[in-house]
Amino acid sequence: MDTIGYVPGPMPKYEPERDLLGYGENPVDVEWPNGAKIAISFILNYEEGGEHNILHGDDRSEAYIWEKSGANTEVLNGRHLMSESEFEYGSRSGCWRLIRLFKEFGWPMTLYAVGTAFQKNPEFARACVRDGHEIANHGLRWVNWAGLDDKTQIEMIKQAILTLEEASGEAPVGAYIGRGNIKTPELVKIAHEQLGYPFLWESDCYNDDIPYWRDAEHEKDLPQEEKKGLLMIPYNYVNNDYKFVASSPGPGFPGAFVYEDYLKNEFDQLYREGGRMMNIPMHSRILGKPGRANALRNFMKYISEKEGVWVCNRRDIALHFKKKFPYVPGKLAVKKLG
Questions:
Q1: CA–CA gap between residue 266 and residue 251 (Å, rounded)
Q2: Do residues 320 and 326 lie in contact, with contact meaning Cβ atoms separated by under 8 Å?
Q3: What is the largest CA-CA distance in the chain?
Q4: SS3 content of the chain, % helix, strand, coil (to 5)
Q5: 57: buried, middle or exposed (CB in 10 Å: 19+, 13-18, 0-12)?
Q6: Which residues is 112 bridged to in the sheet?
Q7: Per residue in 138-163, is it b (16+ CB within 10 Å) or e — as a string?
């Protein structure tokens, strides 16, 4: 299942059209609950135990997103003590530090959870649901899906849904696969429909500061009233803590103080604009390190002192948006009348 380096050819079915215009000069007023000026979505990518490892049937150890990232750290056909240990830090220590931090503020987050990773740490999986955090689908394994055919992807997504439900007690209603291909968002929706499980949102996109609808290609021949569309809640890399470990030379965060300062600056701009959402992507093995967690806590304290800040999970964003802007084929958002 290792598809690193694979470049997929044309795949016309399920491919979305490009949209370079979006909402344009005057985006819709999302009208966040209780008059909030901004929605803050904290997202913990939980991947530890689902990454490349020969013990998982792969031909290599993971070389991506850890403290010494880069292809030169990759080990083929063997285990890698440093890489494995870094991922274990996330599941043994970092995840618990972060869950304690969110308990301190009483805020929810969304877990981009890898199925096999949650399966290997059911105590943490259950604690997330216990504390009111949302479980979302980050795939069955945290490996490159780019060259996988539709059927294989759908089956892996379905297995991930069931595995996450079994491990945590909650079935995901949203997804961010991250290492998929251009067809993956729609295949996630199809997988949920085949299982008969509800589906609210997909986040494999980075193209806006507010949610939007896109048409689902597999629904194009249905009567208008039967089409449900695909609600996209954009994600981002700009605030992603992986920049702490980005290979040099690169656009990484050289220190926790730079990370904290950037988060505050992005918050201030979006807060001033109003009606936007802010993503804060996290990893247990990265932001779960003490100095970085402290920088995150400083940022959390900063926004906790502002009025009109809605800290929420992505499920709540989806439910709010769907209520205010029900799906209308061919439209990004049309406000419900009345």
A1: 16
A2: no
A3: 62
A4: 40, 10, 50
A5: exposed
A6: 45, 136
A7: bbbbbbbbbbbebeebbebbbbbbeb
**Which residue in 142, 101, 144, 150 sits closest to 120, CA to CA?**
142
Q: Is residue 185 within 8 Å of residue 202, measured between CB atoms?
A: yes
HSE-up (13 A, CA, CB side) for residue 81:
0
In the chain, what percentage of residues exceed pLDDT 90? 72
Answer whether 40's CB lies under 8 Å from 280's CB.
Answer: yes
H/E stretch holding 186 = helix 184-195
Listed residue (118, 130, 228, 112) closest to 178, CA to CA: 112
Report pTM.
0.92
Q: Which pLDDT value is given to residue 104? A: 98
- The helix/strand/coil state of 318 is helix
Could you state, in order of their start, the residue ranges of all structural domains in the chain? 33-324
The beta-carbon contacts of 101-108 under 8 Å, at least 24 apart in sequence, are 101/293, 101/296, 101/297, 101/300, 102/42, 102/131, 102/133, 103/131, 104/297, 105/300, 105/304, 105/311, 107/42, 107/300, 107/311, 108/42, 108/132, 108/133, 108/134, 108/311, 108/312, 108/313, 108/316
What tens digit of pLDDT does each residue of 52-67 get?
888 888 887 887 777 7
DSSP secondary structure code for residue 15 in this structure: P
Neighbours of 94 (CB within 10 A): 27
Q: What tokens appear for 312 in the block?
A: 């929420």
CATH topology for the 33-324 domain: TIM Barrel (3.20.20)
Return the residue matching tokens 């406000």.
Answer: 335
Distance CA 272, CA 131 (A): 31
